[in-house]
From TrEMBL, chains A, B:
Protein name stated in the entry: LacI family DNA-binding transcriptional regulator
MF GO annotations: DNA-binding transcription factor activity; transcription cis-regulatory region binding
Pfam family of the protein (one): Peripla_BP_3
Keyword Transcription set for record: yes
Keywords from the UniProt entry: DNA-binding, Transcription, Transcription regulation
HTH lacI-type domain location: 17-71
InterPro entries referenced in this protein's UniProt entry, alphabetically: HTH_LacI, LacI/GalR-like_sensor, Lambda_DNA-bd_dom_sf, Peripla_BP_I
Length: 355, 355
DNA sequence: CGCAGTCATGACAGCGCAGTCATACAGGCG
DNA sequence: CGCCTGTATGACTGCGCTGTCATGACTGCG
């Protein structure tokens, strides 16, 4: 008794049609069906059409498990993401999905729970078990040196060589130059120095921004005020702002490592009776959607998530499909500073409270 | 010549060890290795230990493609998401991932590009092709009646029965009751009526919120002012706020369908010389992270994304693993109104500008 | 006309697992 | 003691594809 194909039978559970069923209907061999569906050469137009028609009629869908087993390739890319709804990581994930799909790859996603030790390594391991041709580690947190000594290419977005591996490709989110641009914007407005509310230093992204800030100040020979560290949340920015307003009376410019903290900071400053930007200028980072509409509209730095994801994935796909090709370096994404109303020149004649 | 296992050989490409390799090393049959890795009954403690040790030594990882082919199950759930970094959808996706992993399922993600016709159906199709045991359609946009007539269970989060299918499970994000609570909060403060800035009506979530607003006003016998429709963005909230401030001088309370629009709205009101909450009270929806730190801190409604995701996935997994069980209804998630400083009783004696 | 080269197709094996069935032995019971 | 039930294991097969090789048919050219 042979199997009864999909839509044909009246009763019983319908059985998904296989390539042989299509082949039979089209009057060709199963292998030819495979050829058509893989877009291989050497299939006559006539046969191709017949196969596609037969497939359509039966509602045929290729079984990707069988394909993966036979070919050794899954056409799937695994992503290790952070499991946070923060605008940056979420946007990057979306960009990765789009780029992967455009490249003909499906996506598997595993989130690392923050604070989970060995999270990245474990996540990569589980992806390999699920079967992926390549892995993207998106904006990870520093967990000490992680060895990504795995057999597939790995793209690390937004983290340096801490992630070592034989087939690692690192593409930058390039936050350092962006942070530098933000800081320089404030210096160019005439501020003597710029304070910094940093992100949590376990995040590479936070360190990059800190480094960019330092670099800008160094380059201009300015002193580096003590850094306050937040946790990306508006709440932490608020707390940092309170501390800043209380401790130092000479703060005229602050660069916050993300927009949420900048917004919290502005609120704290406002509560302390300081006006933004009249008394204190504030720059954020990310250009989250609300930034243009908070009070005052926030000057911030826009990250080209889409370009980063696309560029990184291009490299990854190349590494997957042409393992022997040179590991071409990533192109640096463009810097974009969005100047709004939260920054202004310092009030030169403003009397110092403490003098 | 037989294959040389993984870490053993010095030269050449290492070949991933298979179950037979583990079996050989442990002195058992391949089938027994399979039993151990699937946690089946009837394996002696001694054998189990030996197999695990052998697997460890070889660095064995099961091949999930082979497993899927042989068993017909992929242990993977596919998610159709919207491809937006909006807080709601992103949070829901994270909740889904966690819940799926806890249930022992991996995740495949496909984003629908907004405005892509037939996006959901196409996305589901591509997931089926990739091989999934179940599908989650997360907060979709109305594309007309979509028939999810597929062979696997489908969980639709946050959309009504427009998505029909033989094995569909619908779990609510229950935005209607939340929207109703938000509106009633304003009425209880003493406002005569409440204006509404709606989300794009192609979104079910936006319609639910609109319906909740209407229900609250009807229940209290209040008139329903005309609705302004935004697109979730702060920019659209800003535009709506401008229109509102210009057109009507009797606006004392506004319920915005999400926090971003509420923030844009507040900015527009501020620019028009109206104070929040003194002149106008504003309620948002979502409780995005910055909401507590904008000026003024936003009264809003928190959605229990995690609970919704977890509950929905429980139903989906049940439908996958026990196809014959009753399709238990979803439990309604709890309502949580977060009252901050953007709402207050109306200024009773405030002189009307136009009188 | 005969032979090489290209194009088009099919036969067959095997990817690495899980399902099915057979087998073997232990203990309980009438 | 034979029989049955429960436990523990292995042999064999097949899931639905792709890779490899074989086989024709057709083309161009000396």
């Amino acid at each position: 008794m042979s199997r009864v194909g999909g839509q044909g039978g009246q009763g019983g559970t319908p059985v998904a049609p296989r390539a042989v069923d299509v082949a039979r209907l089209a009057g060709v061999s199963q292998k030819t069906v495979s050829r058509v569906f893989n877009g291989e050469r050497y299939v006559s137009e006539d046969v191709r059409r017949r196969v596609l028609e037969a497939a359509e009629e039966l509602g045929y869908r290729m079984n990707s498990a069988a394909r993966a087993l036979a070919s050794g390739r899954t056409r799937t890319i695994g992503v290790v993401a952070l499991g946070t709804a923060l605008y940056g990581p979420a946007s990057l994930l979306i960009g990765i999905e789009r780029a992967a799909r455009d490249a003909g790859y499906a996506l598997r996603v595993v989130n690392t729970l923050e604070g989970d030790p060995g999270g990245v390594a474990g996540a990569v391991e589980s992806l390999l078990e699920q079967g992926v041709d390549g892995v993207v580690v998106s904006e990870p947190i520093d967990e000490g040196a992680v060895s990504l000594d795995v057999e597939v290419p790995v793209l690390v977005l937004g983290a340096p060589a801490v992630f070592a591996g034989p087939r690692a490709v690192v593409a930058g989110v390039g936050a350092e130059s962006l942070a530098r641009a933000a800081t320089e914007h404030l210096l160019e407005l005439g501020h003597m120095t710029v304070h910094h509310i940093a992100g949590p230093q376990r995040w590479f992204a936070a360190r990059d921004r800190l480094a960019g800030w330092r670099a800008a100040l160094s380059a201009h020979g300015r002193e580096q005020p003590p850094v306050v560290e937040g946790d990306w949340s508006a709440a932490s920015g608020h707390a940092a702002g309170r501390a800043l307003a209380a401790a130092a009376d000479d703060v005229t410019a602050v660069f916050a490592a993300n927009d949420d903290m900048a917004i919290g900071l502005i609120r704290a400053l406002t509560e302390a009776g300081l006006r933004v930007p009249d008394d204190v200028s504030v720059v954020g980072f990310d250009d989250i959607p609300v930034s243009a509409y908070v009070t005052p509209p926030l000057t911030t730095v826009r990250q080209p998530f889409d370009a980063v994801a696309r560029d990184g994935l291009r490299l990854l796909v190349r590494a997957i499909e042409k393992p022997d090709a040179e590991p071409e370096p990533a192109t640096d994404p463009p810097v974009e500073l969005v100047v709004r109303a939260s920054t202004a020149p310092p009030a030169g004649s403003r009397p110092h409270a403490g003098d």
